[in-house]
Every structure is written in C-alpha cells, then in structure tokens.
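Input (structure):
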C-alpha cells in the first residue's frame, strides 16, 4: 500500500472507513467485496482518483457525487452489485477508459454512459438488457464490448459507427437479427456468437471470416 493506493479488498467492512476521506491524494481506491450497501456522497473529496473498485458489494445505487471525480480515467468497477440505474452525473466522466457494470440488474444501458466518450472497454454482461440504445455509436473509441448473457434480440445499426471496435461478445443472447453495419467495422477481430441458438448467421459473416475476423458460433 502506497500513499496513492489504498486497498480494502475483501475486508467485509460493511461501510466505507472514515479514514478514506482524509486521503485526498489517492489515485486508486479498492473497496471490492465489503458488503457495502451504500457509498457516501463524501467520495467527491477524492479529487485525484483515477481507479475506483466497488465491485462485489450490495449497492443498489451509486452517489451522484461520483460524477464530480473528473480525474477518474483508468478503471471504474461496479460489477456484481444490485444496480438498476446510474446517476446522470456520471456522463461527466469523459476521461474514463474502462467501465464494468456486469452482473447487476440493468434492463437498459444507462444513458450516463453515452457521455463517456473515451471508453475503450465496456463490460455489461450478465444483466437484463433487451436492447442497445442508438447512442452506443457515440462511443467512438470503444475497442471491446462485452454483452454476454443478456436478453438482446437485435443490435442497432449505429454499432457500425464503432470504427475502433476489435471484440464484441454476444454469447447467450436470444438474437434474431444482426445489422449489416457490423460487417463494415474495419478493425473487428472477434465476434462471439456462441450459445445463440435463435440466430441464422447472415451471409456477411463469411466475409468477416475471409478477411481474418474470428467468428465463434
């Protein structure tokens, strides 16, 4: 543990220790696996935070103040909680490159994510997503999109605007349609369609494979 890294991983604390708020120079804070039911708005005092791990807790909400951490640029882990929404203030996290909201209870992808224009990797597996919003195409720097085990039946045409996308994981979704715009993604290296028994792979999938993209099906 250094002065800029503080880890309480798997300490089963039940609440965020008060000492955290005194360490305003923190760049990495790990609070994973602590049975946390809430995170105080006081988190806004951590003005230098670049990585925050709140995974594997019991959160039903995250504080609005999280959006004031404009230095948060590396990782935000919110996976394995009980979240159904995110505050709109998180759209201000414009430097964030990695977001994990997997294993929660999202029925729709939170609109706050649309403002995270520097995201390189988005993980939203193991939720209850039935559709992706058209604004997904705004995440122009996205390289990995992980959507395994949701309830998606189709993707929007705007997925074709993700020109930096390398990987898209669609395993275990009841897909019935894939837009042809996926075939135009110039950097796509992996398309994972395993355990999708509802989809007749379109003809353009062969073209993807011929150019070197690995298609798992």
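Output (sequence):
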């Amino acid at each position: 543990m250094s002065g800029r890294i503080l880890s309480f991983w798997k300490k089963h604390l039940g609440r965020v220790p008060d000492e955290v708020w005194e360490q305003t120079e923190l760049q990495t804070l790990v609070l994973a696996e602590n049975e946390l039911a809430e995170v105080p708005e006081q988190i806004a005092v951590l003005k230098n935070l670049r990585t925050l791990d709140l995974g594997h807790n019991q959160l039903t909400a995250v504080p609005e103040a999280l959006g004031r951490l404009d230095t948060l640029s590396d990782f935000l882990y919110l996976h394995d909680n009980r979240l159904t929404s995110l505050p709109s203030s998180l759209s201000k996290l414009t430097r964030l490159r990695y977001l994990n909201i997997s294993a929660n209870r999202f029925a729709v992808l939170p609109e706050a994510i649309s403002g995270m224009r520097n995201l390189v990797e988005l993980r939203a597996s193991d939720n209850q997503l039935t559709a992706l919003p058209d604004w997904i195409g705004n995440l122009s720097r996205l390289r990995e999109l992980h959507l395994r085990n949701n309830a998606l039946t189709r993707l929007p045409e705007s997925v074709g605007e993700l020109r930096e996308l390398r990987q898209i994981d669609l395993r275990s979704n009841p897909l019935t349609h894939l837009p042809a715009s996926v075939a135009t993604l110039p950097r796509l290296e992996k398309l994972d369609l395993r355990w999708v028994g509802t989809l007749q792979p379109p003809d353009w999938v062969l073209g993807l494979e011929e150019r070197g993209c690995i298609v798992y099906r």
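Notes: The radius of gyration is 18 Å. The beta strands are 5-7, 28-30, 51-53, 75-77, 98-100, 121-123, 144-146, 167-169, 190-192, 214-216.
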